[in-house]
Amino acid sequence: MIKQLALIVIVIICFSAATSYSVESVRVAVLPFEIEAGEELLYLTSEISKVISAHLKQDGAIMIEPDVKPGAIDYSPGDDFDLIDEIRKAGIKYGADFVVWGSFTGSDQKFSLSAKMMDLYGETPLSSFSAGGEGIENLPVTVEKLAGDISLKLFKKEKVAQVLVKGNERIETDAVKRVIATKPGDIYLTKSLTKDLRTIYAMGYFEDIRIESEESADGKIIIFNLKEKPTVKKITITGNLVFKDEKIKENLSLKIGSILNIFQIRSDIARVEVLYKEKHYYNVKITYKIHPLKQNQAELELIVDEGKKVLIRKITFQGNDIYKAKQLKKIIKTKKKGFFSFLTGSGNIDENQLEQDVARLQSFYHNNGYIQARVGEPLVTFEEDGIYIIFKINEGLRFKVGKVDMDGDLILPKEKLIAVLKITQETYYNRSVIRDDILALTDIYNDAGYAYAEISPRISKNMDELIVNITFIVEKGQLVYFERINITGNNKTRDKVIRRELPVVERGLYSGNRLKRGIRNLKRLEYFEEVKVNTEKGSDNDLMILDINVSEKPTGSFTFGGGFSTVENVFATGSITQRNFLGKGQRLSMEAQFGSRTTAFILNFTEPWLFDIPLSAGIDLYNWEKNYDTYDTDTQGGGFTISYPIFDFTRASFGYSFSLVDIQDLEYDASDSLWDLQGKNTTSSVSIGIKYDSRDSTFNPQEGAENGVKIQYAGLGGNIGFTKVSLETGWYIPGFWKVIYFLHGKSGFVWRNTGGDLPDYERFYLGGINSLRGFDWEDLSPKTTNSFGQESEIGGTKFVQFNFELRFPLFGNAGIIGLLFFDTGDLYDNGEPIRLGSLRKSAGFGFRWNSPMGPIRIEYGKVIHPKEGESSGGFEFSMGSAF
Fold first, then answer.
1. Residue 515 backbone dihedrals phi, psi, to 5 degrees
2. CB-hemisphere CA count at 13 Å for 582?
């Protein structure tokens, strides 16, 4: 710990020395501004100067605070030489290199600012600046712009005067400029141009991009010289017998006239290979050749090696001593190739079917007394002559049914409840029978009003006698009454017509059977296309809300339309409208538009006090685009979240979200998993969480704690399937001299669900101002080598993070605090254990200011023991977010 603190001190001293050396010659004094306006605006004379001083200080200048009171220097027109001489003497007196002064003219409706800057020792002694605006509320923005102009002149920074695009013939200049981040008026930065080059290349239309710059009186002229990729004039396919050319071309996104994009070609090849594999040609191989033609055109040739059709040739079992293979083959749905396979479909392989077969085999053993039986993932081997599948089985020992008992909250004599159970009639342990017995007992308790009764079997194995004693544990909970019965969707049918068909009533005792009977009665009326029933907990544990939603045959309002436009091409629209039927003040409207370029969803529903209790409910839809280093995503989705206070400072939440992520514009160094998921990917997830937050402030808390846990499960449909667990704790402890100690820990785990994909953007990443300061996110991320031989960052499946901060006030009135910090943590991939003894570390210092524009953080992190190729640390800045 002593070595670490010593390192922090050395970093601070070295940084301070370096900073003072680099800006020692830039000392600036800002004089009070002259206010030529009403008396109510005289306070601006010092406020404008303060804002300019703060901006210049942030840019690196040493600010001199001259002891010049407002009005001490007369800026009014007169002898300019005397004024300049007076200001020069004042600047030299206070040790400044530059002096800034100026005036404010106007009113709270319209105003103008003018300023001058004198270089006391330079050849160009005077520079002029001006800015104006309307509305005094816009003055801060105008002052910031004026300060920015002064800073550019002071530090001799170059502006971008013009951005030109040359060499493009087919691709419009505006389309290129839309993706270029560098704009006229920006500061000339090489790293920004490098990013622009990568962005233009990611468009996929250009094979060569060169950036040049020219000098002009107004600044740099940036020129993007482009060489376009050839267009596809012809697509030929050779070697294909199973599918005709037209069928293969239907599955190609690349068309004649398209830009020849290598990534698109590879994506199309993968799509055609899937087409073949669906027909069981698993050994298909597709390559391509590009034949250059005149006028920057090319012919694309797809060369198909179809191979032979591959079917299941043999299914074997290993470890099955009790049951013969012939009997087990009857359990599974996967079958080997038969004589009539062209009619029956036998011999075809289906991964989902295989997974279900594993469950079927395991259930078969468990239902016949082999409670320790385990069936491993099937081993599938593709050979030239067919597919070979091996199921590995560990049968274990067979157990008989021993004593069957009941315990817990019994509402009937034990003998009567046990008489209902079917497991007592079984010789050997049978899991499916136990499952049915649980349902039968649950129905008994539900009919008695215990809607939330929980029944679980406690299994006790006797290894000596090979018997299983089973005890059904019952937690009946409370008697549940219907607090309210809500009926929705009935635009024409009166409530009383529906209610009289229900054998359950408000404030009546819950009964599952009577509820089922009532729904059956409603369907028999033939008034409704559909009847949906949902139950949820009411305002107390013994109350339940019953929601019955009916869809009437002639009711409701639904519209659908479509068309064609030059902007959207083909598009379709649809809307559903529901009136305020019962006059409760709730409004629900849904509208959707789908086009070739635009997909729009409009959904609005708000109920902050659902059922007049503090149950927060919300629904949202979103559509965002995000640019990563090696790929882009275009995401649409939506979801809802509800939360309810369960204790002081504690809320429990539940949410559902659905998103459609389009992965596009991949670069060569993108991971193989991203290439596999290129295109649209669907995520459907639910999440639950509990959060405790007793902090007295969000930006600079003085005391309190923030703890939470959240579990997200994705896989309720779609191809993305994962489970993510996040845990976080943070404690703010007051110390001496207004010092605050902050202890923070965070961890997360994510794993891929069976049958789903875990994309890189759902993994964990560390590094940066909100996790491990000083590290870049690439430094800690697990890496893999993709098919192009490029190293890719793929994120971790688990992580740990710890932060310790010592916060202390610097300028209490201004809300500026300083801090020293020590961060440690690391990321891990699948199969890697968490090693707390070898976590990565960084340390540093920072400043925070709760400015009028939002919370601002400036922090410097130094990596302790950086590895080869890693960054050693640096400054980071953020605005508008709390740590």
1. -65, -45
2. 10
Q: Which amino acid is at 544?
A: M
Q: Do domains 312-394 and 606-879 have the same CATH topology?
A: no
DSSP string computed for 22-38? HHTT-EEEEPPPEEES-
Rounded CA separation 847/405 (Å): 66
Q: Is residue 761 packed enough to be buried (19+ CB in 10 Å), middle (13-18) or exposed (0-12)?
A: middle
Q: How far is Cα 619 from Cα 639, in angstroms, rounded to an integer?
A: 6
- In this structure, the number of other CB atoms found within 10 A of the CB of residue 675 comes to 19
Query: Among 783, 785, 765, which residue's Cα sits nearest to residue 668?
Result: 785
Question: Where in the chain are the domains?
Answer: 2-155, 160-228, 231-305, 312-394, 400-475, 481-555, 559-604, 606-879
- Looking at this protein, which amino acid is placed at residue 732? Y
CA-closest candidate to residue 84, choices 133, 124, 126: 126
Lowest mean pLDDT among 164-168, 251-255, 775-779: 775-779
- Assign 282 to helix, strand or coil: coil
Is the Cβ–Cβ distance between 167 and 227 less than 8 Å?
Answer: yes
DSSP 577-610: EE--SS--S--EEEEEEEESS-EEEEEE-EETTG
Q: What torsion, rounded to 10 degrees, do the Cα atoms 382, 386, 392, 398 define?
A: 160
Query: At the topology level of CATH, where does 160-228 sit?
Result: Ubiquitin-like (UB roll) (3.10.20)
- What's the CA gap between 383 and 386, in Å, rounded? 5
Confidence of residue 763 (pLDDT cuts 50, 70, 90): very high
Contact criterion met (CB below 8 Å) for 606 and 586: no
Homologous superfamily of 231-305: membrane protein fhac (3.10.20.310)
Long-range (24+ apart) CB contacts under 8 A made by 567-576 are: 567/597, 568/595, 568/596, 568/597, 568/598, 569/595, 569/596, 569/597, 570/595, 570/596, 571/595, 571/596, 571/598
Residue 554 has pLDDT above 70, yes or no: no
Q: What is the pairing mode between strands 783-785 and 740-752? A: unpaired
Domain spanning 312-394, CATH class:
alpha beta
Whole-angstrom Cα Rg for the chain = 36
Retrieve residue 413's tokens: 């004599």
Enter the DSSP assignment of 314.
E
Pick the CATH number of 606-879 from 2.40.50.140, 2.40.160.50, 1.10.287.110, 2.40.50.100: 2.40.160.50
Per-residue confidence at 81, pLDDT binned at 50, 70, 90?
low
Beta bridge pairs of residue 262: none
The total number of residues written for the chain in this structure: 883
Residue whose token pair is 């309002």: 557
Residue with tokens 């509990």: 690
Question: What architecture is domain 481-555?
Answer: Roll (3.10)
Q: Give Cα separations from 358 to 130, 136, 392 (angstroms).
A: 77, 73, 10
For range 307-325, the mean pLDDT:
85
